[in-house]
Design a protein that fits this description.
about 280 residues; D-amino Acid Aminotransferase, Chain A, domain 1; 6-stranded antiparallel beta sheet; 8 helices; 15 strands; binds N-(5'-phosphopyridoxyl)-D-alanine
Length: about 280
């Protein structure tokens, strides 16, 4: 693969993009990111991704924000240069290159801004059609999961543990309640009510989560943003995950328990169709 990637204002071949070993992303995981999905060569929900990036940067006291228009142009350029029809654009901003010190560098320090595309079958893929299995695991992340940082070692470890046990993904659990998936939000449907955890500091408030909640309302489903336990999830009538890379993907097994008859839920399928239809309409 020889993609064209973005590094600090320049478009270069991926093998030629080099970042300093003193970058704060490398030394302190001092970097934030967004993943925007691309359908038919167009960006889905770009503005909301930028708003969340601003919030992440502001929470971690980044001294200034990125210019959204410039970031939009670079996203579109990358899509064009790489002929991307379906997949994602990954954008990362780090606090930049600085001598290793626990204190933040000078506020004038240049950020390091990187971006690249990834091709992915977002619409037609095995997980969407057949559903996925998830294993539960203790949520050992820090207490600010609402900020989209690149500190992803624990979710990556959790996903590895799940695959070692033969599962597709993991749902993380804190104080007996499911928080979220390794890189997605977790949902269940019980007694006709769609349930997902309230957006607090212990989960990432997904952009897809927001859009899917709107879709559920339009389909006249009741929504509750509240905690749920593993056993509530296992005895739910349906379960699913949402994210920019999975849209709405059915969950058919949690640990050793099948969800209903172990096939993707009817309402989950409807929600997925509605979400994709709306996403296509708002794509830019
Ligand atoms: N992950 N929760 C976590 C922990 C996530 O990492 C993500 C997204 C989500 C869903 O957010 P959104 O709907 O805005 O994609 C929830 C991205 C896709 C990733 O890290 O690749």
């Amino acid at each position: 693969m020889n993609r064209i990637v973005y590094l600090n204002g320049e478009y270069v071949e991926e093998t030629k993009a080099k970042v300093s070993i003193f970058d704060r992303a490398l030394l302190f995981s001092d970097a934030l990111y967004e993943v925007t999905s691309v359908l038919d060569g167009k960006l889905i929900d770009f503005d909301n991704h930028m708003k969340r990036l601003d919030r992440s940067m502001s929470e971690l006291k980044y001294p200034r924000m990125l210019n959204h228009d410039e970031i939009k142009i670079l996203h579109k350029e990358l899509v064009k240069k790489n002929n991307l029809n379906e997949g994602t654009v990954y954008l990362q901003v780090s606090r930049g290159v600085a001598e290793r010190s626990f204190d933040f560098p000078d506020s004038e320090n240049d950020f390091t801004v990187t971006a690249f595309t990834q091709e992915k079958d977002l619409i037609n893929n095995k997980s969407a059609l057949e559903g996925i299995s998830v294993m539960t695991i203790e949520d050992n992340r820090w207490g600010r999961c609402d900020i989209k940082t690149v500190q992803l070692l624990y979710p990556s470890f959790a996903k590895f543990c799940a695959s070692q046990e033969g599962f597709d993904d993991a749902w993380m659990v804190r104080n007996g309640n499911v928080t979220e998936g390794t890189s997605n939000n977790a949902w269940i449907i019980r007694n006709g009510t769609v349930i997902t955890r309230q957006a607090d500091n212990l989960i990432l408030k997904g952009i897809t989560r927001e859009a899917v909640a709107e879709c559920a309302k339009e389909l006249n489903y009741k929504i509750d943003f509240k905690n749920f336990t593993i056993s509530e999830a296992q005895s739910a009538s349906e379960a699913f995950i949402t994210s920019a890379t999975t849209f709405v993907t059915p969950v058919i097994k949690i640990n050793n328990a099948k969800i209903s008859d172990g096939s993707p839920g009817k309402f989950t399928k409807l929600l997925r169709e509605k979400y994709i239809e709306k996403a296509r309409k708002i794509a830019i």
